Amino acid sequence: xxxxxxxxxxxxxxxxxxxxxxxxxxxxxxxxxxxxxxxxxxxxxxxxxxxxxxxxxxxxxxxxxxxxxxxxxxxxxxxxxxxxxxxxxxxx
Length: 92
Hints:
Layout (H helix, E strand, L loop, with lengths): L4 E4 L4 E6 L2 E10 L2 E8 L9 H15 L3 E4 L2 H9 L10
Parallel strand pairs: 4-5
Antiparallel strand pairs: 1-2, 2-3, 3-4
């Protein structure tokens, strides 16, 4: 299991490789903020905490960049609510 979150800038998504599968969190940059739009975890990885690992990696990466975040993706928004340590990063 790779476990490293990478920012695929060309595809506007964060990626987490697990074996031959790829979990992704799509984003766009808007008015100086990162808008998290959609998260996908392959069915083969469902129930293994992969989405949570991806979300934590995304938020940690963006925290290091001192980014402001708009979580339009329901999964990322729910993650942020459950993890108040990231609430200061959120706009909207």
